[in-house]
From TrEMBL:
Gene Ontology MF annotations: transmembrane transporter activity
Transmembrane segments: 21-41, 296-317, 342-369, 389-416, 437-461, 693-715, 745-764, 779-799
InterPro entries on file: ABC3_permease_C, MacB_PCD, Macrolide_Exporter_MacB
GO CC term (a single one): plasma membrane
Key words of the record: Cell membrane, Membrane, Transmembrane, Transmembrane helix
Organism: Paraflavitalea soli
Protein name as catalogued: ABC transporter permease
Matches recorded under Pfam families: FtsX, MacB_PCD
Domain MacB-like periplasmic core: 20-253
Subcellular location: Cell membrane
Membrane topology, from the record: Multi-pass membrane protein
Domain ABC3 transporter permease C-terminal: 301-415, 698-802
Source lineage: Bacteria, Pseudomonadati, Bacteroidota, Chitinophagia, Chitinophagales
Length: 816
């Protein structure tokens, strides 16, 4: 019987090629998009899910409050790890991790040979044997106990092969290495690289005992309980039955006993689940990329919508075709077929089409992965499609789609009454039947989804354009910056490099200062202003810059004077308008001459006020800000290039000379620069990914909707072919016929727009609340969304309506 069902299914496909092709193509596009989305979502949610007892592993993070300002910090005081291990009863294990600033690695060659140097190595940490009790590695040589002693290092297999050219990586054990020419260590163990997806992607593990042995305690605030630097991290594993809230309370009590909260400063420790590291943007992560849960959930919604669109097409076209299969159903019922048998036959046809569409979608996936490679993690390749869980998902998807797309049509087709069908009375007044209204409802639903995506795409693009083109309060074009790490440089060497850069003719202006006006990094402190009547305390961003810095970035002076380069004796402050306003000065000039008291009780005068500018993205309000010109702490070079003319090599020549000048002063440094406007664009990476997602979803939604519309138009014109012939004979023009055939479908598009407009307004308005500074929502955005869908629908309709209107009426009426 199943064989007979399949034979009938493929016979029906051959008989109705156009409808079958539209059904298969619509389902294939929806299924392929769903598969790619599932690959992305499954990959992102798989991070750090493989650890044994992973549900009991947490990272200790900190919540800091200064003078009304709140900061989330991934670090903890350095002494906490040792104290927690002995003082807190609910912990099964603790592992301190001290991250490094991508050190230089030198491999000793012996025999007085020059060591091989590897610059800026990522994934280098200080830790001990406890870390390997939390995270399970396969040991190729050595054991966790090797990290009990100082000056020992454990390498992953890939890093050992990179450093030492041995066929057997375990031969690297016993070799000598050094970090930043200051710490010499011996390779004591080799572990296999973690194959699972993880943010704990460390490659080199230096024994923690090396820090005090090398007198690096000050670098890591080794004994200080009130310092929270990002390189001091702590992982803990709770005992069974112990709640994270209990343990956090004990940790807070321990920290408070060593460092009581001072006036205006409050700290609290929290436990962050290990599998939350990949998603929580409040805290730093060890990996290089982070996922965004709302975006992933949005992807799932998009996948569901695209599948629904494909299923709507199938339902619409199958029920529309029911008139052509009514007699087949009537004869089968007359010959003894039960309704259950007919439903099984029609469902098997749907299953055959879905399987065909799935096979086609698998063939489309490499194209989708290539087309959207910029938004898809590199680890997601076509080969991942054949993992057991992905195959199980595809099988489940086939059956779910078959059920969604085929169940209702099979009920309709199997429900015909044989007597009425064989008398040609089954479709009297069919234009007003429930099936016709269902088709219209489903078609409107398709257009609602498509228009929603279009309007969303236009509004997200408008906000991104607004963010990137808004006057942020400074110059951002043709500005390049690069940084010399503080540990590698002295003020005198930086000044030598500065003079060399000033002599390059292709550079218009250069200055040595702090970070750019807008940066993801922030240094803040509690500052107190004493206006003679009362002291006002405020958490304030602190930046470094002098007059040349403000001139290069064209930051406007509102009152007073700009900062001048200073030595360690003469210091002064420049503040922004927000600082002056929040300190109670309506007129910025009134704050000139007042003094700011720092946390070390030092008093510095305010000499000027600059206009407010955005130091962060437009998601946040402008914060109080002060500048000081501390030359000895400046390590970022800011360079203004001349305007780039088409075909000009000015910038290329400038970069070549910059690289040469850098290597003359710092031979081991690589010239790694960033354009300032690109750094600003980086603030809106999530929004840009959302924009690409919506553009992609809009295109697919419109394509699938138009496929369904085309199928319905083909069916409608086929049903009305004799009516069209009669109207042409009676003198109807092509324009009148096209208008007649298109009118009902255009009404559906308009109805969809009326429903979509308020829904999309609500969704977009909700999304825009994430921005402190946002674009407007003009009416023409919504009108444009409806107009775009209307134009695309008209083009789709014209493909078939013009063809039907131009057909020879004699052929249509010959059989009458």
């Amino acid at each position: 019987m199943i064989r007979n069902y399949l034979k009938l299914a493929f016979r029906n496909v051959r008989k109705h090629k156009a409808f079958s092709l539209i059904n298969i193509l619509g389902l294939a596009v929806g299924i392929s998009a769903s598969l790619v989305i599932y690959l992305i979502v499954q990959y992102e949610f798989s991070f750090d899910r493989f650890h044994k007892d992973g549900d009991r592993i947490y990272r200790v993070v900190s919540s800091l409050d200064f003078s009304g300002a709140h900061y989330d910090n991934s670090s903890v005081p350095a002494p906490l790890a040792a104290a927690a291990g002995t003082s807190i009863t609910g912990l099964e294990n603790t592992a301190a991790i001290f991250t490094t600033y991508d050190p230089k690695v030198s491999i000793s060659k012996g025999n007085n040979q020059k060591p091989e140097v590897f610059k800026a190595r990522k994934g280098v940490v200080f830790t001990d044997q406890q870390y390997f009790n939390l995270v399970t590695y396969q040991w190729m040589a050595g054991s966790p106990d090797v990290l009990k002693e100082p000056y020992k290092v454990v390498l992953t297999e890939s890093r050992a092969k990179e450093y030492f050219p041995f066929a057997d990586p375990t031969r690297a054990v016993g070799q000598l290495m050094s970090y930043d020419d200051s710490i010499e260590v011996t390779v004591a163990g080799i572990v296999k690289d973690l194959q699972e997806t993880t943010d704990l992607n460390f490659k080199e593990f230096i024994a923690t005992a090396t820090i005090p042995a090398s007198k690096l305690e000050n670098n890591y605030s080794w004994t200080t309980w009130n310092n929270y630097f990002g390189n001091s991290q702590l992982l803990v594993k709770l005992k069974k039955g112990v709640s994270p809230q209990q343990t956090a309370a004990q940790i807070n009590a321990l920290v408070a006993s060593h460092a009581p909260n001072s006036s205006g400063v409050s700290t609290k420790q929290l436990l962050q689940p290990l599998n939350d590291l990949h998603f929580n943007d409040k805290y730093d992560i060890f990996g290089e990329r982070r996922a965004h849960k709302p975006t992933l959930y949005g992807l799932l919604v998009v996948a569901a919508f695209l599948l629904i669109l494909g299923c709507i097409n199938f339902i619409n076209l199958t029920t529309a075709q029911s008139v052509q299969r009514a007699k087949e159903t009537g004869i089968r019922k007359t010959m003894g077929s039960t309704r259950t048998q007919l439903i099984a036959q029609f469902m098997s046809e749907t299953l055959a089409l879905t399987i065909t569409a799935t096979l086609l979608s698998i063939a489309l996936i490499p194209l989708l992965l290539k087309a959207f490679s910029d938004n898809i993690p590199e680890a997601i390749t076509f080969s991942r499609l054949f993992q057991p869980n992905i195959i199980a998902f595809m099988i489940a998807l086939v059956f779910v789609v078959s059920l969604l797309a085929g169940f209702y049509p099979s009920l309709v087709l199997s429900g015909f009454k044989p007597v009425l069908v064989l008398k040609n009375q089954a479709f009297s007044n069919s234009g007003k039947t429930r099936s016709a209204w269902l088709r219209k409802t489903l078609t409107v639903s398709q257009f609602i989804i498509a228009q929603f995506f279009i309007i969303g795409t236009l509004m997200v693009a408008k906000q991104i354009h607004f963010s990137l083109n808004k006057d942020l309060g400074y110059r951002k074009d043709a500005v390049v910056n690069f940084t010399i790490p503080w540990r590698e440089s002295s003020l005198s060497k930086k000044q030598v490099l500065l003079q060399k850069l000033k002599s390059i003719p292709e550079i218009q202006m250069v200055t040595l200062s702090g970070i750019p006006p807008a940066s993801k990094g922030t240094t803040s402190s509690t500052l107190t202003l004493d206006d003679g009547k009362k002291a006002i305390e405020k958490m304030t961003e602190i930046r470094l810059g002098d007059a040349a810095y403000f001139d290069l970035y064209k930051i406007k002076l509102v009152a007073g004077q700009m900062l001048q380069p200073s030595d360690t004796v003469r210091k002064e402050y420049l503040v922004n308008e927000t600082f002056a306003r929040e300190m109670g000065f309506a007129n910025p000039a009134d704050i000139i001459g007042k003094h700011i008291q720092r946390r070390d009780k030092t008093l510095l005068p305010i000499v000027g006020v600059v206009a407010d500018f955005h130091t962060k993205s437009l998601h946040t309000n402008i914060a109080p800000l002060v500048f000081t010109a501390k030359s000895e702490e400046c390590n970022t070079f800011h360079i203004l290039l001349p305007p780039q003319e088409a075909g000009s090599n000015t910038w290329k020549n400038a970069f070549a000379k910059l690289d040469k000048a850098l290597k003359e002063v710092f031979p081991e440094r690589t010239f790694e620069y960033q354009f300032f406007d690109e750094q600003i664009a980086d603030f809106y990476k999530t929004e840009q990914n959302t924009s690409r997602l919506l553009t992609w979803a809009s295109g697919l939604a419109v394509f699938i909707s138009c496929l369904g519309l085309l199928g319905l138009v083909i069916y409608t014109t086929h049903q009305r072919v004799k009516e069209i012939g009669v109207r042409k004979v009676l003198g109807a023009s092509v324009t009148q016929l096209v208008s007649l055939l298109s009118k009902d479908f255009i009404v559906l598009v308009i109805v969809a727009f009326v429903i979509t407009a308020p829904l999309s307004w609500w969704a977009v308005n909700t999304w825009l609340q994430n921005f402190a500074y946002r674009t407007s929502m003009p009416w023409w955005i919504f009108a444009s969304g409806g107009a775009i869908m209307l134009i695309i629908a008209l083009i789709t309709l014209s493909i078939q309506t013009f063809r039907s209107a131009l057909a020879n009426p004699v052929k249509a009426l010959r059989s009458e």
